[in-house]
Design brief:
Distance between the termini: 53 Å
Number of helices: 12
Radius of gyration: 18 Å
Strand order of the largest sheet: 3-4-2-5-1-6-7-8
Strand content: 15-25%
Shape: globular
Helix content: 25-40%
Structural class: alpha/beta
Amino acid sequence: MGEVLVITSGKGGVGKTTSAACIGAGLAMMDRTVLMIDTDTGLRNLDVILGLENRIVYNLVDVVEGNCRLKQALIRDRICPGLYLLPTAQTRDKTSVSPEHMIKLVDSVREDYDYIILDCPAGIEQGFQSAIAAADQALIVTTPEVSSIRDADRVMGLLENAGIRQSRLLLNRLRPRQVRRGEMMSAEDVTEILGIPLIGVIPDDEAVLIATNQGVPLITGESLAAAAYRNIVRRILGEEIPFLNLEPKKGFWARIFHS
């Protein structure tokens, strides 16, 4: 039976959808079958990040309203053959899909996939409640900013109230140099505040923007951020591996003068 993972955040713009795309693609690269469901009705972006926006015919709302069969709405990824996307509607609002809809839909496909990834809308309103209704576990994305951490803490409480048995933290856009200078919270600072296990730390990396603009999952590249996402995927699969050293490598003269 497939594991259902909701990827969420309290605050928008923290890299939640990019993280969802990387984790879904990464699991498929590890020979798992993966269904990704974009639940951010009205503001979908997962299709763009995966480079699948031109192949959408039907969507999640069409499926729950009975306008098409699920298989008609699914899009198979060309780069990762085991990865499938169910996009949502761009011209409807978040009330179009209820928690009951999501539970029924997910239950109907649990046997067909190893993992079902739900890309949750930001915030804690109807779209959030619908997305988490069918989830077994959650991955909370935050950045090392006070407002983002506060919103993540709020989301943690809502997930616990909803009966989500396991939540883990993904810390995004960390800048080691700013941490060293005391200008940014460290991963240890954030995990101490939130009190949940850390599954990975992603550095602030320009490769993220490049991959998004190209419509190619970041995780397929060779950047430091891609390597960090690949390690997160391995941890999801149960491997115990150390966290990456996110410090930039020093050049020869920098090593001489700062050793």
